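Example complex used in Figure S2.
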Amino acid sequence: EVQLVESGGGLVQPGGSLRLSCAASGFTFSNYWVTWVRQAPGKGLEWVANIKQDGREKYYVDSVKGRFTISRDNAKNSLSLQMNSLRADDTAVYYCARVYGGKGGVFDYWGQGTLVTVSS
Amino acid sequence: DIQMTQSPSTLSASVGDRVSITCRASQSIDDWLAWYQQKPGKAPKLLIYKTSILGGGVPPRFSGGGSGTEFTLTISGLQPDDFATYYCQQYNTYSQKFGQGTKVEIK
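Predicted assembly (227 residues):
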């Protein structure tokens, strides 16, 4: 059974940092792109970042470029999102998901999400 | 960047109704279009990909169509379990942006 489990969310002050993790199981992690998607309270889904199987190709939404870094450890079946210079509008539930299929790929399995709150 | 626009934002319907949601892309995405269903407090679920291919376990009352820049999600015979928010997503590029969502609520 494919499982993705996020951790690392919490309350952080504006300007602070947080590192999210996503533990993957039930599939060959190193064979798939993976992604982070977030959802601000009461708002829609926003794609945040993608990373290729070998970690050499990464894409980010403009609003997090230069502040967030996506990375992966295929030996540990783990995905991470390092978030720096956090702002109030980064407050959201952050989901990791597996990417499947052609072109950029769809998100076929999702974690349960971890809440990040940026507030003083 | 490709922008995705859904309409309507909210849709009120009754059990048994046939409902459709429209999604427009700011430029052609061929048929690289997916639909997701999300219920409150839950992660999204992949419903349809490649415009019209049903995801695993998705009932056939869901269908998708379109190409290029205009797409539709149709639910034929709305069931109580279908009241949720639906999002389209383009995956013609590696920046897989979503539409703003359509909430299907009980009339």
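The mean pLDDT of chain B is 96. Chain B is about 0% helix and 50% strand.
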